[in-house]
Amino acid sequence: MNTDLALVLLLLAAAIVMFVANRPRMDAVALLMIVIIPFTGVITINEALAGFSDPSIILIAGLFVIGEGLVRTGVARRLGDWLNATAGSSKARMLVLLMLSVSGLGAFMSSTAVVAIFIPVVLRICQNTGTAPSQLMMPLSFAALISGMLTLVATAPNMVVNAELIREGAAGFGFFSFTPFGLAFLVLGVAYMLFARRLLAVSTKSVGSEGRQPNLLDWVEQYGLTNRAYRVRVLPDSPLVGKRLEDLPLRASGVNLLAIELPGRFATEVIRPNARTELVAGQILLLDVVAPKTEVDRMLRDYMVEALPLGDGGYFTDRSQEIGMAEAIVPADSKLTGQTILQARVRSEMGLTVLGLRRGREVVGHGLLDETLKVGDTLLLTGFWSDIRKLRSEFSDLVVLNLPAEHKDVLPAASLAPQALAVLALTVGMMVSGVVPNVHAVLIGGLLMGLLRCVDFNSAYASINWKSLVLIVGMLPFSLALQRTGGVDLAADAVTAVAGGASPRLLLGLLFLITAGLGLFVSNTATAVLMAPVALAVAKDVGASPYPFAMIIAIAASAAFMTPVSSPVTTLVVGPGNYSFGDFVKIGVPFTVIVMVAALVLVPWLLPL
Question: H helices then E strands: how many in the chain?
Fold first, then answer.
């Protein structure tokens, strides 16, 4: 071992110790290594910084942007809603559909982002079905990790390994080269979790369930709105047809028109009514009606409208993407003090409808519109989210006190889901066909997401996990430094020496164990950066094809099932699932062994040695 190699290994050991201690944070460690390594003289500062121009880094950043487009347009959430509706009451079917959905979506976007998207979906499913979150959160994380084994772009380690292959002069993997392995692991994962979930605790309590933010259904119950919601279709012979809202005595009859649904070919558009809105046949009106049931039935007959069933949850909560609620308090200097709600003209001035009034804990019932407002009164308002946001920023006579939990889930570009899917299909098509390089295809996809307004500049930049990118860039100099100092060859010789002239299949197993073991302490991306050149050197030493050795590293790097700190994917579900460290060891270690055995069978078979 020469002095240069000793210095590089010392720095690598120091980086691993800091990674394990998480002091300082991982991206800071990576930047520290970029600064220090050139002082060894092994590489120059320009070579240390070359990772920032590496095509794989640009590729990963572009995929974050495309994934953000799928999130902002609701593609991911619609998948979750379909999952909830399709699975019904079967917990086994729910688990299978959840893992298939997560892995399918994770094949084309960040697995960490997929888990973040699905955690609230799974919690909502658990609340509706009475299922313990612990029964679904770990399958969620396992499916997200497996999704990294389905396509070339599914996870950073795949692209790191592929980039190393290309640097060594090989052709690189195709877009779907990983898919046969990933599909096999997915089948094994689903079957394994159907059994292993019985070993998990079944407590329905999850972290963060106490002191939660109120949701729309809480306010529907608190303010007694349950029987006030009506959804009606305007019939062709209705006297409402051709009339403007300003010409109709709806409010005098206790009727508030909150929104109008316009059925379309692909989706239903929800529009904001105003005084000059003209009603036409076929429109669906969302009404809040404060009147006895007999009076409501009479109005439905007189106006010749057809009553339709409400959506899931009641009181238009199924329209929470467009229509929301807010609690607003009357401040001391408000001009509304002393006026009745009708005189305050909240609807005409602010575009919002007053649904309820609360003084302290007491909710005012009858005669709401004639109630005189006092300082400290709390109004429950409903309307389009854009009007609620405008209330917060432009009006001082009411101060927004509370927003429902659904406010955080409002999609900024919900109507653009078809465009986002088209961009995704085009990007994948370009990558599969090879008409342009992968990084070029992803850049085109990201720009199209922006051009079609699926993302904006702020959301695009915010979507990129800069910490992960800096970590990869900071570890790439180690790969070059170890190659120049003979460290890679030394590690390869050590692996072959330990194997003692064993078959290439046993060498693959040893590399899997080393990679998976190193992944307990270092991120799977950094592990791939370090182990990919070692694996390719081993393949060269034994005269084998580099492809099975590269594939085994990619698979082992993604097999971060054993501890909750092996990957952000597993860390994210610890709180919602109320897991302990031992839960992951108990479930993750056996499955890692299963993946290793399956990989040692499949890799040499599909990628001959």
Answer: 26, 10
